[in-house]
């Protein structure tokens, strides 16, 4: 077994992970140190499934953004369970996330908890191949990315977003049903304005934190901007929603608010919008932003976040790969990295945990090497 140096006392790390009937992993138990985790194996062996389980230690649907039922192992579909022991800046925590045929439930230190509470004990960031199209996808994808960044820095952002979305859905239902009672709209618009103003303020604060983070070696700088048409103060947003009410009724949907914002990105060295850059440049920008986000979390939270980097190394040349590993080690982050071959993690020997993942008859097995 490779000897790996322990992390600092202020690190954030998964120390124990147990999976039961989670996707291709019928049963898995891992003890790991607070160090990078290099996971390699053939395509389809279950590497991404493993880090998806780790992503459930943060609020939301995880890095694939699927329903809890879709994470259940086939063909049994008897439910799944993810147990973890986490070392956080405020001490150790036991986290359990499970699905047994109804809603996903979460326990923190053996007590039931809302998913949003996960953001107060751990911060988890990820980068997946599906995110490579971020700059050319619909605005909703970039908005979701921005909100994940914001949530990693401001844990109350999740509760604020839930409040806004609830009022937004209710107002949309009234619009579709042709309801004209002003009192119903006044109440919902007041809630949307209150939550919406806080959403926008949080997003701007998060962008400011990223802009202030140090640049990472070998990765390009990005200048981010919040593109919005909605007023940003509570009073102005409430007034605008009232003014838009007739147009929204005609359209049958909500046409104004922070739910329509977009994230703009400029490749600084080329003075070019990210959407016009090459695929490789867009990938490098994303890595740069994730590293900047990690630096900001480390400063605000007291420890760097857990990083989940799916198949990142395969798309980088040797120099940028080495630069990425130096950045991770310098941060002191527990990064879970996946790749098809052990050679992709050259340079991490003795400083990372190496896990080989294999698959036989639909069942994944994990071996520490």
What is the 3D shape? globular
The strands making up the biggest β-sheet line up spatially as: 2-1-4-5-6-7
Q: What pattern of helices and strands is seen along the backbone? A: EEEHEEEEEHHHEHEEHEHEEE
Question: And the CATH topology of the largest domain?
Answer: Rossmann fold
Structural class by helix and strand composition: alpha/beta
Give me the secondary-structure topology:
Elements: E1 13-22, E2 25-31, E3 37-40, H1 47-55, E4 80-88, E5 91-99, E6 105-108, E7 111-113, E8 124-127, H2 139-153, H3 157-177, H4 182-212, E9 222-227, H5 234-251, E10 262-267, E11 272-273, H6 279-301, E12 306-309, H7 318-331, E13 335-339, E14 353-360, E15 363-368
Parallel strand pairs: 3-13, 3-14, 8-12, 12-13
Antiparallel strand pairs: 1-2, 1-4, 4-5, 5-6, 6-7, 9-10, 10-11, 14-15
Helix pairs in contact: 2-4, 3-4, 4-5, 4-6, 6-7
For this entry, give a set of tags.
Rossmann fold, alpha/beta, 2 domains, 36% helix
How would you characterize the overall build of this protein?
This protein has 369 residues and is of the alpha/beta class. The protein folds into two domains: 1-123 and 305-369, Rossmann fold (3-Layer(aba) Sandwich); 134-285, RecF/RecN/SMC, N-terminal domain (Glutathione S-transferase Yfyf (Class Pi), Chain A, domain 2), CATH 1.20.1050. Helix content is 36%, strand content 24%. The chain has seven helices and 15 strands. It has helices at residues 47-55, 139-153, 157-177, 182-212, 234-251, 279-301, 318-331; strands at residues 13-22, 25-31, 37-40, 80-88, 91-99, 105-108, 111-113, 124-127, 222-227, 262-267, 272-273, 306-309, 335-339, 353-360, 363-368. Strands 2-1-4-5-6-7 form a six-stranded antiparallel sheet. α2 (139-153) packs across α4 (182-212), α3 runs antiparallel to α4 and α4 (182-212) crosses α5. The model has no long low-confidence stretch (mean pLDDT 95).
């Amino acid at each position: 077994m490779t000897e790996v140096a322990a992390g600092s006392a202020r690190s954030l790390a998964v120390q124990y992970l147990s999976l039961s009937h989670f996707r291709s992993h019928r049963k898995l138990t891992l003890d790991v140190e607070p160090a990078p985790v290099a996971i390699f194996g053939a395509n389809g062996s279950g590497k991404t499934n493993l880090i998806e389980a780790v992503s459930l230690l943060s609020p939301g649907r995880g890095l694939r953004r699927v329903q809890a039922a879709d994470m259940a192992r086939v063909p049994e579909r008897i439910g799944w369970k993810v147990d973890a022991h986490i070392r956080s800046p405020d001490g150790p925590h036991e986290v359990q996330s499970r699905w047994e045929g109804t809603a996903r439930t979460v326990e923190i230190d053996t007590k039931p908890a809302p998913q949003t509470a996960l953001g107060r004990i751990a911060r988890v960031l990820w980068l997946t191949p599906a995110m490579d199209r971020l700059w050319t996808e619909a605005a909703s994808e970039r908005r979701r990315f921005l909100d994940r960044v914001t949530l990693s820095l401001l844990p109350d952002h999740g509760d604020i977003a839930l409040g806004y979305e609830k009022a937004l859905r209710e107002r949309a239902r009234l619009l579709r049903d042709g309801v004209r009672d002003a009192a119903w709209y006044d109440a919902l618009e007041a809630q949307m304005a209150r939550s919406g103003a806080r959403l926008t303020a949080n997003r701007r604060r998060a962008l400011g934190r990223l802009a202030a983070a140090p640049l990472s070696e070998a990765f390009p700088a990005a200048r981010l901007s919040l593109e919005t048409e909605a007023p940003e103060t509570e009073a102005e947003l409430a007034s605008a929603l009232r003014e838009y009410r007739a147009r929204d009724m005609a359209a049958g949907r909500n046409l104004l608010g922070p739910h329509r914002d977009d994230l703009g990105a400029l490749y600084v060295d080329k003075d070019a919008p990210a959407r016009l850059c090459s695929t490789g440049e867009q990938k490098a920008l994303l890595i740069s932003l994730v590293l900047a986000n990690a630096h900001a979390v480390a400063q605000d939270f007291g420890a760097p976040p857990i990083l989940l980097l799916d198949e990142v190394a395969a798309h980088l040349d040797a120099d940028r790969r080495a630069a990425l590993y130096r950045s991770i080690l310098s941060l002191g982050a527990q990064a879970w990295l996946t790749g098809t071959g052990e050679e992709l993690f050259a340079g991490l020997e003795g400083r990372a945990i190496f896990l080989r993942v294999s698959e036989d008859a639909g069942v994944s097995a994990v071996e520490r090497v």
